[in-house]
Every structure is written in structure tokens, then in C-alpha cells.
Amino acid sequence: MKSKQMWVPALLSLTLIGALSGCGSDTSSQVDGADAAASVKVMKLGQVTDSGWSGKINPNQEVKIVSKTSGKVTAVNVEEGALVKKGDVLVQLETDDLVQQLKQAEFGVIASNAKLADTLAGARSQDLRAAESAVRAAEATQAQTNAAVEQGKAGLEVATHIYNSLRNQFDSSSAVTKEDMDRGQLEFEKARTGYDQAMAASQAAAAQANAAKARLELAQAGATDNTIKALKADVDRLNATVVLANNSVNNAAITAPADGMVIKRTIQPGEMAQPGVALFSIVDMSQVQVELSVTDTQIGKVKAGTAVEVKVANVPDQTFPGTITFVSPISNANSNTFPVKVTVDNKDGLLFAGTIAEVHMQNTSPSKLEVPKSAIIKKDGKNYVAKVEGDIAHLMEVQTSDKNQDWVFVEAGANLQANQQIVVNPNDKIVEGGKLKVE
Q1: Which residue segment(s) compose the domain that 426 sits in?
Q2: SS3 for the chain, per residue?
Q3: pTM, entire model
Q4: Whether residues 345 and 408 fall in one domain
Q5: What total of structural domains would you count in the chain?
Q6: What's the CATH number where 28 sits?
């Protein structure tokens, strides 16, 4: 009788548990979970936010110091790790040859100025007499070349007549041999060449005579405005040469273009510096840039001038204020991410180039977790995930939003956080409080 009394309540309890389990009762889950452990696979939740990104820290400015000219290094004034100011002389090159080139250019300016002064003063009487003599000599040469032209012309006419006669006889009879024809043609070619040369010499002599007359006229009339302009231009050209030579002397002292720290040195005294070859690398770390890649779904929320918070692993207990200073309107090649730069003050030198920084916008929305759609349990029009604590399952109701065809976002809360484990492919055996066997 006692056994029967115990069996009836047990039957009623099982009946009640079966009814409650259809409604998602915690009591039903605990009893079913106690009966058998469900074999499951689990995953660890990863956290994402719409306003948080990771990026690499870069110097605010990195400059490679090069020489503008080639030259032997006489002194190197800084070592790696040195702090330099803009204008500090880092390397000195030899200047002996450069100084001589500067002096030569200065002497050229003196000569050009003297020539301009003489021209402005007008021609001297001896200069006029020399110009007249030059004209007479050129005219005499021209007369001689003209006579040579006439002589060459006559010779060409005779040679042409003989050659034509030989060719006609050669074509019509055998009285003229091939050798006679060849000699006649050779004499014709020589006569034509001589005439051409005489013509060229005559033309050259005429040009020289004209040039001599022009110089005489110029000397008699004095310098024209164009001549004065040309001489003044020559003075300016030589002054520019002086400036260039002086720049070469100044460029022999290679200076720092900005404040910073020397992080690399590749030159030693006695070596040859070459144009464009890096001698030093200097970085400015007073501010740093965090370079981010922001997806196309988030870029619309990112604006230049927005204040952000930056965290780095080597200073875990400190947050650095930063500002978004650049948002690219063009995505990276072969991806849907956009370059974004954040400027952060680094006056204390705690941020190092090359390290990874986390960037978060201020007043951000709640954190979200990424969950595969296969992990979602749908029951009574609601969505749940099975959180695993030890070997016990806990059904957590979640609000989801699509990420892609395989994943959804769920909001993190007090009962569901990043790095907690959930069941990947839950089955009907998983209930609230039920035991699990993790594979």
C-alpha cells in the first residue's frame, strides 16, 4: 500500500513535467536535464561593436634625410636615438670645390657687368676702325669667292658639254669607248663639285661680309635696346649661377627638416653621400596616427573631427583621447573597407609605432556579439541561445539582427557576454538546467 502511494505522486509529477516542458518550464528542464546529458559542440562568443576598430600606430611624421648633392662626408654630428630640432646640422660634406665654383660664378658676374657697362658707354674710336677693317677684309674675301664661282661655273659648262657629247657618241656609235665615257663623267662630277664648293664659299663670304657690316653699323649706331636687354639678361643668368653655387655650398650642410628622433643612421665620416640616398630616418612621435580600415556598413557613422578613445596593450589601465582627422571617400583596393586616420597626442611617449591600438567612439551603442544562425533556438515566437556553464545549459532569450546569411548579431547583457560558451547546433534534448556533454 505504501508502494502504491509513492508511485501515484510520481506519475502525477511526470505528467505535470511533461505538460510544463511543452511550455518551456524551468522545472521541466531541470528534471529532463537530470535524466541524461546531451552531447553538444560549443563555441566561444566574440564581441563586436559598430564603433570599435583595431589599427596600427604610425608616427605622425617620418622623414628620410637625403643629400641634394654628392660629396665626401667630413662629419656626422648625431647618433641613433638623438633628439634633433629643425635646422640642426646632421652631416657636413666637403666644400672646397664648391667654394671655388662659387668664386668662379662671382667672377663671371663681374665680367658680365663690365661688358654691360662698356656697351652702355658706346663704341670707342679704335673699335670703329677695327670694325671698318673687318668689313673691308670680308668684302675682299667675298670678291675672291665670287671670282671662284664664275671660274667654277665656266668649268662646269665645259665639262657638261664634253660629257653630253661623249654620251651621245657612245650611244650612237663605237667611236667612244666605255673608258672615255667614265673619264668624261668623272670630269663632269669634279667640275660640278668644284662649282658647288665655290658657291658655298661665296655664300659664306657674303654672310661674313654682312656680319662685319652689321657689327660696324652697330658700333657706329651704338647698342640697341635688344642688345642692352641681352647683356642684362646675361648678368641675371650669371647672378643665378652664383645663387646656385651658393646653394650648393649651403646644401653641403645637411640639416634636420623637422623636430624628431633619429631612428636610423646609414652614413659614416669619410664615405660618399649620393643624391637621393637616405642618410638618416627621423620620426616625430609627439603625435601618432592610428590607421584604421572601416567597413562600408560603418563608414557612414565616422566623421572627421569626432573624438574617440584609444587603448593599447602596453598601457592597459590608460585610455588616450584622440580625434578622427581623415576619412577617405575611396575604399581600399580589393576590399569594402575605407582608410581612416586617428590623431593621438603622445607627449609622454607611451605609444609606440607598429603596435596595435583599439579605437572606440565615445558614447557608443551597446556591445554586440556574433552568433551563428545555427545556434539560435526558436521557441514560442522567441529566440534563445544555450549558454554553457560547466556542464549545465541555460537558455538565454536574445534579440537578433542579421549580419549575413550565416551569422546574426545579438546584444550583450548581464547574462550573456563575450568569451562565454554557447551550443553551436542545439537539439531538442537541450533544456534549461539540463546537463551537457561537451564534445
Answers
A1: 2-49+367-438
A2: CHHHHHHHHHHHHHHHHHHHHCCCCHHHHHHHHHHCCEEECEEECEEECCCEEEEEEEEEEEEEEEECCCEEEEEECCCCCCEECCCCEEEEECCHHHHHHHHHHHHHHHHHHHHHHHHHHCCCHHHHHHHHHHHHHHHHHHHHHHHHHHHHHHHHHHHHHHHHHHHHHHHHCCCCCHHHHHHHHHHHHHHHHHHHHHHHHHHHHHHHHHHHHHHHHHHHHCCCHHHHHHHHHHHHHHHHHHHHHHHHHHHCEEECCCCEEEEEECCCCCCEECECCEEEEEEEEEEEEEEEEEECCCHHHCCCCCEEEEEECCEEEEEEEEEEEEECCCCCCCCCEEEEEEEEECCCCCCCCCCEEEEEECCCCCCEEEEEHHHCEEECCEEEEEEEECCEEEEEECCEEECCCCEEEEECECCECCCCEEECCCCCCCCCCCEEEEC
A3: 0.46
A4: no
A5: 4
A6: 2.40.420.20
Query: What are the tens digits of pLDDT across the range 196-243?
Result: 998 999 899 899 989 988 888 777 777 778 888 999 999 999 999 999
Residues 152 and 176 in one domain: yes
Residue 228 forms part of a structural domain: no
Residue 170: pLDDT band with limits 50, 70, 90 = confident
Q: 127 and 215 share a domain?
A: yes
Q: Specify the CATH number for the domain of residue 331.
A: 2.40.30.170
Whether residue 116 lies inside any domain: the answer is no
Query: pLDDT per residue over 339-395, tens digit each?
Result: 999 999 998 889 999 999 999 887 655 567 888 998 899 888 889 999 998 889 899
